[in-house]
Design brief:
Layout (H helix, E strand, L loop, with lengths): L2 E3 L5 E10 L16 E10 L5 E10 L4 E5 L1 E7 L4 E3 L5 E5 L7 E10 L7 E9 L9 E4 L5 E5 L3 E2 L12 E2 L10 E9 L2 E4 L15 E8 L8 E8 L9 E9 L8 E10 L5 E11 L9 E6 L4 E6 L2 E12 L5 E6 H4 L8 H9 L13 E12 L4 E11 L2 H18 L19 E3 L7 E7 L3 E8 L5 E9 L2 E7 L7 E8 L4 E8 L2
Antiparallel strand pairs: 1-10, 2-3, 3-7, 3-8, 4-6, 4-9, 5-8, 9-10, 11-12, 12-14, 13-15, 15-16, 15-21, 17-18, 18-19, 19-20, 20-27, 21-26, 22-23, 23-24, 24-27, 25-26, 28-29, 29-32, 30-31, 30-33, 33-34
Length: 516
């Protein structure tokens, strides 16, 4: 937001302004969006040598579609060298629903002090909404120390290897990619294996079993991460499509210790006409680490459910996958290209499935060579309308020890932020395919409770402390179907609580963390 001072003096605006758009008027993302109402806090700093007494201010809008509904605010006395806000007497405003997204509204602040000769006038801008990011087929997550390109039909690194759309997996970002190609595989037999990986023969390109239903869209706000993207796809390109739908949601962070990986959450939904039984899900990565891919080694970590690769002569970089959910793996394996790639000029669907279900398993490489790695989970039985969640982290670090630490941090972040209210961990709680969950978790001022109810009526939120004592109860009405409620604890101290969500047809409980 820009700030231009029209009149100077001992009172100046400090750090522009803060927007508070809590529900029901807003969505809590800290800005005005079209159709929202909220409050504005402006800090004033006394840069003079004497106190400013009985300071008041009035706020005016320079745009007719942005209305100041409470234009007066009292600051009290501001001693020399001190800063005061109007947090106790905030300005209020309302943005018309027809304001174009991205509009910067000029606002004028008139400041008065009873013991100074003249008043001060300041102009600053308030942006309404953020211009939408265009939908994309390939996106690159790059807010952390690493960067990873992801395709909307299931591959990572590139759309088509090795030089098509995408920049691979860079550890750290800005260097050459250590990933030749990789992606999602899912199936329950040799005849049903869906992927966007190499086909046979290799010169025929890649399979396009996954079909894009919706391109990648940037999620705003990206909470609980610093970057979040989502798209949907299906198995519609497979010759024996079973109606399997997939939502893939990617996260990346800038925070130190949580910036060495990208996390993907896959939600699989059976939209077909019959059950899909014995489904296995996995990620395959042909990591070419260093300048000589034939000098790579690979290994697994069964405790952390991870697989990794690096140069035999150097640990920098080390890259691989961690299975974050569910908490048991079907396979963690190195893939020997001499046995499973080159003889058949790329893997058959039968070989891919046996890698997913663990029939082919080699925990460690046995020589310096050209390898891939696979991490997988299953089997899952999906009745019609049911969903299954599987999550992975793509991790890169400058040493094997740091990779192990980063793998643990990825699990820690996932458990704290993505795991929410659910009846059976790793499985969607409702037959309609809508999961009850909290986001964000941990949270500060409030968190959104997402739920599904087959029956309209009251929804009851009950919070219990660690001893099991009920400390807060909220009841609200809902219609049939999917809903979202913004829960703001009224008088709870920071700490761990258990939140019970009871609709007319089901009940779920989850641990939540109030951090402030």
């Amino acid at each position: 937001m820009s700030l231009s001072v029209l009149s100077t003096g001992p009172l100046v605006i400090y750090n522009n302004n803060t927007v508070i758009d809590s529900p029901p008027g807003g969505n809590g993302d800290g800005r005005f969006d079209p159709g929202e109402s909220g409050q504005i806090v402006v800090a004033l700093r006394n840069v003079g040598n004497e106190a400013a007494e009985d300071v008041t201010a009035k706020l005016r809008s320079g745009y007719s579609l942005f209305v100041i509904t409470d234009s007066s605010s009292a600051y009290g006395d501001i001693p020399a060298g001190s800063t005061r806000t109007n947090n106790a007497d905030r300005f209020a405003a309302s943005a018309d629903a027809s304001i174009p997204i991205g509009t910067i509204v000029p606002c004028t602040l008139l400041v008065h002090s009873s013991n100074w000769v003249h008043d001060w006038t300041y102009v600053f801008g308030i942006q309404v909404g953020l211009p939408p990011v265009p939908p994309q087929y390939v996106i690159t997550l790059d807010t952390g120390e690493v960067s990873l390109s992801v395709c909307a039909i299931g591959s990572i690194g590139y759309d088509e290897p090795p030089t098509d759309l995408g920049t691979g997996f860079q550890v750290p970002k800005g260097v050459a990619s250590c990933l030749f190609y990789g992606g999602l595989m899912a199936g329950n037999s040799e005849s049903y294996l869906a992927d966007h990986h190499f086909s046979r023969p290799a010169n025929s390109g890649t399979n396009h079993d996954w079909q894009m239903l919706d391109s990648f869209r940037f999620v705003m706000p990206p909470t609980p991460a610093d970057e979040q993207w989502v798209n949907t796809m299906s198995d519609g390109g497979h010759p024996s499509s079973k109606g399997l739908g997939v939502e893939q949601r990617w996260y990346m962070n800038t925070e130190n210790e949580y910036d060495d990986w990208a996390i993907v959450v896959f939600d699989f939904e059976n939209n077909g006409s019959s059950a899909i039984n014995g489904l296995h899900v996995g990620m395959i990565g042909d990591f070419d680490v260093g300048s000589s891919p034939t000098a790579n080694i690979a290994g697994s970590d069964t405790v952390r459910r991870g697989v990794w690769m690096r140069q035999a002569s150097s640990e920098n970089p080390t890259a691989g996958f961690v299975l974050l959910a569910p908490t048991s793996f079907a396979n963690l394996t190195a893939v020997d290209h001499a046995r499973y790639v080159y003889p058949d000029s790329c893997m058959t669907d039968g070989q891919k499935f046996r890698l997913l279900d663990g029939t082919i398993a080699q925990r460690q490489s046995n020589r310096n060579y050209d390898w891939s790695v696979v991490a997988s989970a299953g089997p899952f039985n999906l009745e019609v309308g049911m969903m299954q969640r599987v999550a992975f982290a793509v991790v890169g670090a400058t040493s094997q020890e740091c990779w192990t630490e980063a793998a643990g941090k990825a699990q820690e972040w996932y458990d704290a932020n993505i795991l929410g209210v659910e009846e059976n961990p790793g499985r969607i709680a409702t037959g309609q395919g809508v999961r009850t969950f909290l986001m964000p978790n941990p949270f500060r001022n409030g968190t959104f409770v997402h739920y599904f109810s087959r029956i309209p009526g009251p929804v009851e939120l009950t919070a219990f402390d660690a001893s099991g004592r009920e400390v807060e109860r909220t009841v609200f009405q809902t219609e049939k179907g999917e809903g979202r409620y913004f829960w703001q604890p009224k008088s709870l101290a920071r700490g761990v609580y258990f939140l019970k969500v009871r609709t007319q047809d089901q009940e779920s409980v989850a641990k939540v963390l109030l951090v402030e």
